[in-house]
Amino acid sequence: MSATDRKVLPATAGSTPSGPTPRSRAARRRKLISLAFLLPALLILGALVAYPILFSVGRSFFDASGDTFVGADNYTEMFQDPATMKAIRNSAIWVIVAPVLLTGLGLILAVLTEKIRWATAFKLLMFMPMAISFLAAGIIFRVAYEQDPDRGVLNAVTVGVHDAFSGDTAGYPTAHPQNPRTIPAQKDGSYRTAKTASPGDTVNLGLVGVPPKDVPKEAKPARQASSAPAAKGELRGVVYIDFTLGGGGKPGRVDPTERGLPQLAVEAVRDGKVVATATTGNDGAYRFEDLPPGDYALQLPKKDFAEAYQGISWLGPSLITPAIIGAYLWIWTGFSMVLIGAGLASLPRDALEAARMDGANEWQIFRKITVPLLSPVLGVVFVTTVINVMKVFDLVYIIAPGPVQQDASVLATRMWLVSFGGGNNQGLGSALGVLLLVLVVPAMALNIRRFRRSQS
Fold first, then answer.
1. The model's pTM
2. What structural domains and CATH numbers belong to the chain?
3. What is the overall mean pLDDT for the chain?
4. What is the DSSP string of 137-193?
């Protein structure tokens, strides 16, 4: 049979076309378009995330110079270094304390703000610290935590409250008698007159070594009070600065411009026992009335020369980590409150109203209904905070002073110090970075898992 006589047989039902179908071509085209849009993001992600991770993992197996392969020596050294172990301990404190406090504060504030009329303004005020960089917040709290009450606002409040309730008198720690022979020092740190006096006498006690900044503004000249005669049965005198600015004064005599020292305790001592106590006024005057006849020594007790209360050492080794966590809470509490508040607003109100109608009080509703229903949101806030505190660097580096930097160090700051802050050992620093990545990855995976579960 010739070719022209051949007939084209129709395709059978079970046969398949040899080329791609229009549907498959459209699907392939969509994939190519998607890949074209994703390619820039994938390139950036690879350059900024994937490559640094792989490079750090590889670098962690080399020495400080990067030329010699040392295997796992950097990881061994990392866990044998006391400073690194302290950083790991501090990071553990951050992970345990900060997320719990932040989630708890956010939950409490979110619930309470539902009960007030100006909730929006309060949320805005609480959220404002999020607009401040960690660097600026660190500088703010570095000043707020200063030991000097004249600079540190927290210690200014602490000292004010202490002075208001303790009743301690003012102290002049650098003061001492002008003539140690007439007012010798005692073993307990006090000063007592060598000669005794009786009621009706006037005894002036001159001190030197008081810096002008330590003299209270209310201190007045002591000349008039020192020359006032003592009444019958009264033992009196002044405690004054026995030094004339510019010279010209005479030691042991109250000169016209010499001021008294206010708020000092003066004790009358007889037979080694304190029988009466007086306090100096603004002109330094003191007086004992109705003393029984006899001989008395006048004593300036130790507390007159004690250091004034300076507040709490917020930036000391024992409190530096809690202080920095406090600064972190100030920044992130608004974020936690707003996020939990959004979840609270979406709760089914019929369940809450039904519980109230059944006789449940607000605490029972909060504990048994509100918190369980908010558990997905609370979980997101908690895990997100865990990831953030594992990477905290700015606040620790800015707030902690140099002498206590090691006491406040966390893994991120330790990694920077070892690599660039003087250690110049980027092999060990890379090992610390890998450790930090390994610790963060589980929390990130848990967060992604929770996100996918909420989307399903």
1. 0.74
2. 73-153+314-455 (1.10.3720.10), 176-305 (no CATH)
3. 86
4. HHHHHHHHT-SSTTT-HHHHHHHHHHHHHH-PPP--TT-EES-TTTSPBPTTS-EE-
